[in-house]
Amino acid sequence: MDDPRSYSTKVRAYYHRRAPEYDDWWLGEGLYAPVPDKWADERDHLLEEIAALEPKRTLDAACGTGFVTLHLPGEIIGLDQSDAMVAVAAKRVKDARFVVGDALDLPFEDGSFERVFASHFYGHLEEADRLKFLAEARRVAPELVIVDSATQGGVERNEWQDRVLKDGSQWRVYKRFFSTSTLLAELDGGETIHSGRWFVAARSPRYVRSGRDEIPLARHAPA
Ligand SMILES: C[S@@+](CC[C@H](N)C(=O)[O-])C[C@H]1O[C@@H](n2cnc3c(N)ncnc32)[C@H](O)[C@@H]1O
Questions:
Q1: What is the 116 CA–ligand 1 centroid distance (Å)?
Q2: Domains assigned to the chain
Q3: How far, in Å, is the centroid of ligand 1 from the Cα of 82?
Q4: Which residues of the chain have pLDDT under 50?
Q5: pTM as predicted
Q6: Hey, is 97 helix, strand or coil?
Q7: CB of 136 sitting under 6 A from ligand 1
Q8: Choosing a second label site near 37 at 20 to 30 A (CA), which of 17, 75, 99, 200?
Q9: What pLDDT, on a 0 to 100 scale, did the predictor assign at position 92?
Q10: Cα separation of 15 and 78, whole Å?
Q11: pLDDT score of 223
């Protein structure tokens, strides 16, 4: 049972409460209006890049309202800790399956998927949880795709943000902003899918092919 005072429990409660207004952030509406400069163009471009990934059996970890899930190619299972988020996602993405669960303790067997995808989740994880999530993602799939927030003005930031919801409730949320090089280093290598003003995205296979062998990515020396 989670300690109700712990950061991770509070962040889960925050997103659960935020479910009905979460899409405002993607859309630049409500508390997030007006839409920031070039945000909508870059968002749509990012969604096209995600849609162009090779179709795979994919777990969308911390899928939220399914705003991004809708664009994932292949057989899709979305997971989120909040049943309110999952309810919105299931209405939106009819041909995917959704489960309520913990992305840090995935309720799936080893190798159940071909890809784990996570958008705007990784950057909310403090170090111990970040490592837990990476271990879980690598356990259930040979490929990991991370989408998150880009550095603003080239400055990497890890910070505690004070946030409010429409009902006036106040929350503290841990949030990171990434360069693609930091993200790729943390994933032990891979390739950049998107590098923009607002978003970064990287794809990291667990193994790379070298001749006839598959080598763990971190041990693979560049040619
Ligand atoms: C910023 S939202 C991202 C939602 C979606 N991936 C997107 O990009 O629109 C973060 C999501 O992580 C979920 N979340 C937080 N901790 C979680 C955990 N341990 N396991 C599963 N989901 C979690 C929240 O409920 C929320 O839906």
A1: 14
A2: 7-219 (3.40.50.150)
A3: 8
A4: 1, 219-223
A5: 0.93
A6: strand
A7: no
A8: 17
A9: 98
A10: 16
A11: 44
